[in-house]
Amino acid sequence: MDDGDETVCVTLICDERAYDVVLLDCGPRERDVVQAVRRLTGLSLWHSRVLARQAPVTVMKSWPQDDADEAVTVLRSAGARAEACEEPESGESAAPSP
Description:
Blueprint: E1 19-25, H1 30-41, H2 45-53, E2 57-63, H3 65-77, E3 81-86
Antiparallel strand pairs: 1-2, 1-3
Helix pairs in contact: 1-2, 1-3
């Protein structure tokens, strides 16, 4: 390395938190919810049905808030109960401490 060469290190910091999309309940329109899960995840029909029947279950993990909110809207319009939950930061406990 020459004396004139410099190495520059750049650290990118992302302030946007990640969200999980959680399917709480399929509701009475299970078929519509399974189709919505299939569209959102790209899973096969069979895998989407298995996933939907495991509710409450995380359907999508680590998405930006806008995308997670949109996915929740799609699931709710299909008749499901769903919510977007903010992921805990690394080092945070998922469960409250006693």
